[in-house]
Amino acid sequence: MNTPMPRSIDFYFDFSSPYSYIASEWVEALAARHGRTVVWKAILLGATFQAAELKPPVAHPIKREYSLHDFERSARFAGVPLKNPPVFPIPTQNAARVFWWLAAQDRDRAAQWARHCLRAYFARGVDLSDPAQLGQLAVDFGLEAGAAEAAWNDPVWKSRLKAENEAAIAAGVFGAPFFMVDGEPFWGNDRRPQIERWLEKGPF
Q1: For position 24, what pLDDT does the model report?
Q2: Which CATH code is given to the segment(s) 24-201?
Protein backbone atom coordinates (compact mmCIF):
# COMPACT_ATOMS: atom_id res chain seq x y z
CA MET A 1 0.00 0.00 0.00
CA ASN A 2 1.42 3.37 -1.02
CA THR A 3 1.56 6.07 1.64
CA PRO A 4 0.14 9.32 0.24
CA MET A 5 2.61 12.17 0.02
CA PRO A 6 1.84 15.06 2.36
CA ARG A 7 0.27 17.97 0.55
CA SER A 8 2.56 20.92 0.17
CA ILE A 9 2.26 24.59 0.99
CA ASP A 10 3.66 26.86 -1.70
CA PHE A 11 5.59 29.67 -0.03
CA TYR A 12 6.41 32.61 -2.30
CA PHE A 13 9.00 34.97 -0.86
CA ASP A 14 11.30 37.81 -1.83
CA PHE A 15 14.77 38.21 -0.33
CA SER A 16 14.10 41.92 0.28
CA SER A 17 10.77 41.41 2.03
CA PRO A 18 10.88 41.72 5.85
CA TYR A 19 7.54 39.98 6.19
CA SER A 20 8.87 37.12 4.04
CA TYR A 21 11.80 36.89 6.43
CA ILE A 22 9.52 36.69 9.46
CA ALA A 23 7.31 34.10 7.76
CA SER A 24 10.34 32.05 6.76
CA GLU A 25 11.06 31.53 10.44
CA TRP A 26 7.70 29.89 11.20
CA VAL A 27 6.37 28.34 7.99
CA GLU A 28 8.27 25.04 8.20
CA ALA A 29 7.27 24.35 11.81
CA LEU A 30 3.64 25.22 11.12
CA ALA A 31 3.56 22.91 8.10
CA ALA A 32 5.22 20.06 9.99
CA ARG A 33 2.66 20.25 12.80
CA HIS A 34 -0.01 19.44 10.24
CA GLY A 35 1.88 16.84 8.24
CA ARG A 36 2.59 19.21 5.36
CA THR A 37 5.71 20.10 3.43
CA VAL A 38 6.76 23.52 2.18
CA VAL A 39 7.74 24.33 -1.38
CA TRP A 40 9.83 27.50 -1.30
CA LYS A 41 9.55 29.77 -4.34
CA ALA A 42 11.84 32.78 -4.69
CA ILE A 43 10.28 35.64 -6.65
CA LEU A 44 10.93 39.32 -7.26
CA LEU A 45 8.38 41.67 -5.76
CA GLY A 46 9.18 44.25 -8.42
CA ALA A 47 7.72 41.95 -11.05
CA THR A 48 4.54 41.27 -9.07
CA PHE A 49 4.12 44.95 -8.15
CA GLN A 50 4.40 45.88 -11.81
CA ALA A 51 1.79 43.31 -12.80
CA ALA A 52 -0.56 44.46 -10.01
CA GLU A 53 0.18 48.17 -10.57
CA LEU A 54 1.38 48.51 -6.99
CA LYS A 55 4.31 50.20 -5.27
CA PRO A 56 6.22 49.08 -2.16
CA PRO A 57 4.77 50.51 1.07
CA VAL A 58 7.98 52.43 1.76
CA ALA A 59 7.62 54.17 -1.61
CA HIS A 60 4.64 56.10 -0.22
CA PRO A 61 5.76 58.91 2.14
CA ILE A 62 2.68 58.50 4.34
CA LYS A 63 3.34 54.77 4.76
CA ARG A 64 7.13 54.67 4.97
CA GLU A 65 7.73 55.43 8.65
CA TYR A 66 4.83 53.27 9.77
CA SER A 67 6.04 50.37 7.62
CA LEU A 68 9.59 50.55 8.95
CA HIS A 69 8.22 50.63 12.50
CA ASP A 70 5.89 47.71 11.81
CA PHE A 71 8.68 45.56 10.34
CA GLU A 72 10.55 45.66 13.64
CA ARG A 73 7.42 45.43 15.80
CA SER A 74 6.14 42.41 13.85
CA ALA A 75 9.50 40.70 14.23
CA ARG A 76 9.53 41.33 17.99
CA PHE A 77 6.01 39.93 18.24
CA ALA A 78 7.14 36.79 16.41
CA GLY A 79 10.34 36.49 18.44
CA VAL A 80 12.49 36.95 15.36
CA PRO A 81 15.60 39.18 15.38
CA LEU A 82 15.26 42.01 12.88
CA LYS A 83 16.93 45.36 12.44
CA ASN A 84 15.89 47.46 9.47
CA PRO A 85 18.79 47.26 7.01
CA PRO A 86 20.69 50.47 6.24
CA VAL A 87 19.79 50.09 2.56
CA PHE A 88 16.19 49.04 1.91
CA PRO A 89 14.75 47.78 -0.32
CA ILE A 90 17.45 46.25 -2.50
CA PRO A 91 17.51 44.29 -5.77
CA THR A 92 17.80 40.60 -4.96
CA GLN A 93 17.82 38.85 -8.30
CA ASN A 94 21.30 37.38 -7.74
CA ALA A 95 20.34 35.69 -4.47
CA ALA A 96 17.15 34.43 -6.12
CA ARG A 97 19.02 33.00 -9.10
CA VAL A 98 21.35 31.12 -6.75
CA PHE A 99 18.25 29.82 -4.98
CA TRP A 100 16.84 28.34 -8.19
CA TRP A 101 20.26 26.93 -9.13
CA LEU A 102 20.35 25.12 -5.79
CA ALA A 103 16.68 24.10 -6.02
CA ALA A 104 17.42 22.26 -9.25
CA GLN A 105 19.83 20.09 -7.25
CA ASP A 106 18.27 19.93 -3.77
CA ARG A 107 15.16 21.84 -2.66
CA ASP A 108 16.04 21.54 1.02
CA ARG A 109 19.44 23.05 0.34
CA ALA A 110 17.80 25.91 -1.54
CA ALA A 111 15.48 26.59 1.41
CA GLN A 112 18.51 26.65 3.71
CA TRP A 113 20.14 29.18 1.38
CA ALA A 114 17.00 31.32 1.53
CA ARG A 115 17.03 31.36 5.34
CA HIS A 116 20.78 32.03 5.35
CA CYS A 117 20.37 35.10 3.14
CA LEU A 118 17.21 36.43 4.79
CA ARG A 119 18.81 36.24 8.24
CA ALA A 120 21.99 37.88 6.96
CA TYR A 121 20.11 40.82 5.46
CA PHE A 122 17.48 41.43 8.10
CA ALA A 123 19.40 40.52 11.25
CA ARG A 124 22.92 41.70 10.27
CA GLY A 125 22.40 44.17 7.45
CA VAL A 126 24.41 42.20 4.87
CA ASP A 127 23.68 43.79 1.49
CA LEU A 128 22.54 40.98 -0.80
CA SER A 129 22.74 43.28 -3.80
CA ASP A 130 26.50 43.67 -3.37
CA PRO A 131 28.25 40.87 -5.30
CA ALA A 132 31.18 40.83 -2.87
CA GLN A 133 28.95 40.46 0.20
CA LEU A 134 26.74 37.90 -1.52
CA GLY A 135 29.81 35.96 -2.59
CA GLN A 136 31.06 35.88 0.98
CA LEU A 137 27.64 34.66 2.14
CA ALA A 138 27.94 31.87 -0.40
CA VAL A 139 31.33 30.89 1.02
CA ASP A 140 29.91 31.00 4.56
CA PHE A 141 27.14 28.71 3.32
CA GLY A 142 29.63 26.19 1.98
CA LEU A 143 29.53 27.14 -1.68
CA GLU A 144 32.39 28.31 -3.83
CA ALA A 145 32.10 32.03 -4.46
CA GLY A 146 32.97 31.50 -8.10
CA ALA A 147 30.28 28.87 -8.53
CA ALA A 148 27.63 31.09 -6.97
CA GLU A 149 28.67 34.04 -9.12
CA ALA A 150 28.60 31.84 -12.22
CA ALA A 151 25.08 30.77 -11.28
CA TRP A 152 23.72 34.27 -10.85
CA ASN A 153 25.28 35.34 -14.15
CA ASP A 154 24.12 32.23 -16.03
CA PRO A 155 21.34 32.88 -18.60
CA VAL A 156 19.77 29.57 -17.56
CA TRP A 157 19.04 30.81 -14.03
CA LYS A 158 18.14 34.29 -15.22
CA SER A 159 15.51 32.66 -17.43
CA ARG A 160 14.38 30.34 -14.64
CA LEU A 161 13.77 33.25 -12.26
CA LYS A 162 11.88 35.13 -14.96
CA ALA A 163 9.74 32.05 -15.61
CA GLU A 164 9.04 31.62 -11.88
CA ASN A 165 7.96 35.26 -11.61
CA GLU A 166 5.61 34.79 -14.54
CA ALA A 167 4.21 31.57 -13.10
CA ALA A 168 3.64 33.25 -9.73
CA ILE A 169 1.78 36.14 -11.34
CA ALA A 170 -0.30 33.70 -13.39
CA ALA A 171 -1.20 31.95 -10.11
CA GLY A 172 -2.45 35.25 -8.67
CA VAL A 173 0.59 36.16 -6.56
CA PHE A 174 0.93 39.93 -6.15
CA GLY A 175 3.03 40.25 -2.99
CA ALA A 176 5.18 38.40 -0.49
CA PRO A 177 4.99 36.38 1.56
CA PHE A 178 2.25 34.62 -0.33
CA PHE A 179 1.03 31.14 0.53
CA MET A 180 -1.01 28.71 -1.53
CA VAL A 181 -2.68 26.05 0.63
CA ASP A 182 -4.89 23.50 -1.12
CA GLY A 183 -5.43 26.06 -3.86
CA GLU A 184 -6.44 28.72 -1.32
CA PRO A 185 -4.36 31.95 -1.47
CA PHE A 186 -3.17 33.71 1.67
CA TRP A 187 -1.18 36.95 1.44
CA GLY A 188 0.96 38.28 4.24
CA ASN A 189 2.76 37.23 7.39
CA ASP A 190 -0.32 38.26 9.38
CA ARG A 191 -2.37 35.49 7.76
CA ARG A 192 -0.62 32.92 9.92
CA PRO A 193 -3.67 32.33 12.22
CA GLN A 194 -5.92 31.77 9.22
CA ILE A 195 -3.45 29.31 7.67
CA GLU A 196 -3.20 27.48 10.98
CA ARG A 197 -7.00 27.29 11.24
CA TRP A 198 -7.27 26.00 7.65
CA LEU A 199 -4.69 23.28 8.31
CA GLU A 200 -6.35 22.26 11.59
CA LYS A 201 -9.98 22.09 10.48
CA GLY A 202 -10.11 22.57 6.74
CA PRO A 203 -11.80 25.24 4.63
CA PHE A 204 -13.83 27.96 6.24
Answers
A1: 98
A2: 3.40.30.10
